[in-house]
Amino acid sequence: MVGKFGALSLALGCCAFAGEATYPLISEDRIPVTELTVTDTAYAAVRKPPGDGPFPAIVFMHGGLGQSSMANLRQNAVRQPTQARFLAWGYVAVTATRREIRRDPQDRGVVEDTLALVRAVRELPYVDTESVALYGGSGGGTLALEVASVSDELSAIVAGEPATIIYMGMFTKAHVVLGTDGNPTGDRRWDVMNADPKALYDEGVRQRTRQKLAGLSTPTLILHGDVHAIKAFNLGLFVPEMEALGKPVTVKTYTGEPHGFYWGRGRDPATALRANRDADAFLRKHARAQPRAIDPQWATPLKVEPMRQANRN
Questions:
Q1: For 157-180, what is each residue's pLDDT tens digit?
Q2: How far is 207 from 276, CA to CA, in rounded Å?
């Protein structure tokens, strides 16, 4: 039998066993996954806490330049530690995707897709319209910044090691590798990330970046490790620019954590859990509707295995 403190610990996705970080697996029998389709390129898998709400909601945006299948979104909605934890903590968890931009990383269609998803989530009858946040990692992290730069419809954003080389316009279709059939076969993003960030940040790039940032007023939390090369761009250029412009940015750093840790696993699952908790505390400060933890008896705590290798994307 689990006591009150132990039950709360399980609900919060913390340590069920000494030295082990867990995540709360809630079966689809208990909380089903519903599908939200806005367009052919903007859709999501949605899970909501029991009851009528109104609840705070988080739209989760994966990294990379591609589009995810609904099958993958459904699986991540249930078994990715970050989404599982936020659901257990009392948020509507919206695991979403957008069109692929492998041919042109600067394609603004992804911003339109994500805006449409945010607006659809705000219209859900059980969601509080003033408590919808966007949580993205890497390519999804820079997308969160893009959306917050053109919209005031979000209560807050969380960006895990955002790929700001896209936001700043340094990574473009000129870096895309095309096959003989004219379709993308890869890209040269590492030509950018291995370069000197300050050399790339010329006056033209700086002015375009500042013009985009002028529209950003949404409270922003950036979660960052100290391993991936993007740190030189984010912590050396982008965050100082945000601070110089007086933008509402908070940065949390996690020593030794590789790219992707913000999805709840990381090199050290306990540190990745701490990052999730930091994001939860930040989002609560900026949401009108406060989350209420789901009954811990609904969840089965599963051990979180560390990331097997660093994610370079």
A1: 999 999 999 999 999 999 999 999
A2: 33
> Diameter of the chain by CA atoms?
63
Residue 255, φ and ψ in degrees, nearest 5: -60, 130
Phi first, then psi, for residue 92 (nearest 5°) are -75, 125
Length of the chain: 313
Query: Model's pTM, two decimal places?
Result: 0.93
221, HSE (Cβ side, Cα atoms, 13 Å): 25
End-to-end CA distance of the chain: 43
Cα distances from 91 to residues 68, 126, 287, in angstroms, run 22, 11, 11
Taking the C-alpha atoms of residue 259 and residue 137, their distance in angstroms, rounded to an integer, is 9
* Ramachandran quadrant class, 240 (left: phi over 0; alpha: psi -120 to 50; beta: rest): alpha
Do the beta carbons of residue 148 and residue 82 sit within 8 Å?
Answer: no
pLDDT tens digits, one per residue of 242-280: 999 999 999 999 999 999 999 999 999 999 999 999 999
Tokens 């909380």 map to which residue?
Answer: 31
Q: What is the predicted pLDDT for the residue at 20? A: 66
In our burial notation (b when 16+ CB lie closer than 10 A, e otherwise), range 63-85 reads bbbebbeeeebbebbbebbbbbb
